Amino acid sequence: MIRKTQSARSRKRLNKDEASEVFRVLAEMWPDAHCELAHNNDFQLLIAVVLSAQTTDKAVNKALAPLLSSNPEFSARDLVALGEKGFLKVIKSIGLAPTKAKNSVALAHQLILLHDGRVPLERAALEDLPGVGRKTANVVLNVLAGLPTMAVDTHVARVSVRMGLVTPTENRLLIEEQLLQVVPEECGRLAHHLLIFHGRYFCTARAPKCGECKLLNLCRQVGLAKDKATEKSPVRR
Ligand code: SF4
């Protein structure tokens, strides 16, 4: 257990030992942290991640549920057969649906053309696909290949800055690089899911539950208004 000294508290960024302790506590708090995008195969996960840009996993799961329930093996070929208009009807409830429907069908076409419909588990091949950027590739490599990648979404960015795991920045790549420097090896691919669960269900944008947080004595509470940042107390675990 790491107790903070006065000089440690005045440092904004956590050191490696403190960061390891953060991930140990997060693993205690969120033993079931996992990818919450519903999928039955690799292609469905890739499409779900693409659809989840600027919307919630819950909204994506809800939109895709009838389709995946009627065709649990829904594949790249099925999406091409459904076409852009057909898929737009399926996903009309989520944000940016027309663009996402167009990109998803183009993505399915490319997968069939270049990879016989299979999802490649290599970063370069993934990022070559239409609509697939670094964050999507990181999620796919984490969930499907079990690699210790760090996809930085809004939750990961907010929580890691607040805690002091990284220095404050809007640059997601910089956040990813700084996080990978401090994630303990044994945490591996789980680190991404732990930060997402903590941000989604506890350290939320508007109402972080600092008063009940097991990380209160480590967390730097960077950027929190005083009324949200609870007075530091003696060790609470
Ligand atoms: S102490 Fe507050 S800001 Fe820090 S991780 Fe916990 S809930 Fe988030």
Task: Please explain how this structure is put together.
This protein has 237 residues and is mainly alpha-helical. It folds into 2 domains: 6-31 and 150-212, Endonuclease Iii, domain 2 (Orthogonal Bundle); 42-145, Endonuclease III, domain 1. The chain is 54% helix and 0% strand. Helix 9 (154-163) packs across helix 11. The longest helix is centred in the middle third of the chain and has 19 residues, at 97-115. The radius of gyration is 20 Å and the shape is elongated. The termini are close together. Residues 231-237 have low confidence and may be disordered. Residues 162-163, 202-203, 208-210, 213, 215-216, 219, 221, 224 line the site of iron/sulfur cluster (SF4).
Q: How would you concisely characterize the structure shown here?
A:
The protein is built from 11 helices and no strands. The protein has 237 residues and is mainly α. It has 2 domains: 6-31 and 150-212, Orthogonal Bundle (Endonuclease Iii, domain 2); 42-145, Endonuclease III, domain 1 (Orthogonal Bundle).
Largest sheet geometry: none
First-last Cα distance: 9 Å
CATH architecture of the largest domain: Orthogonal Bundle
Which structural class do the helices and strands define? mainly alpha
DSSP, total strands: 0
Q: Uncertain spans, ≥5 residues at pLDDT below 50?
A: 231-237
The top-level CATH class of the largest domain is Mainly Alpha
Total number of domains: 2
Question: How much helicity do the residues have?
Answer: 40-55%
Average pLDDT rating: 92
- The value of Rg in angstroms is 20 Å
Task: Give me the strand/helix succession.
Answer: HHHHHHHHHHH
What is the third-level CATH name, the topology of the largest domain? Endonuclease III, domain 1
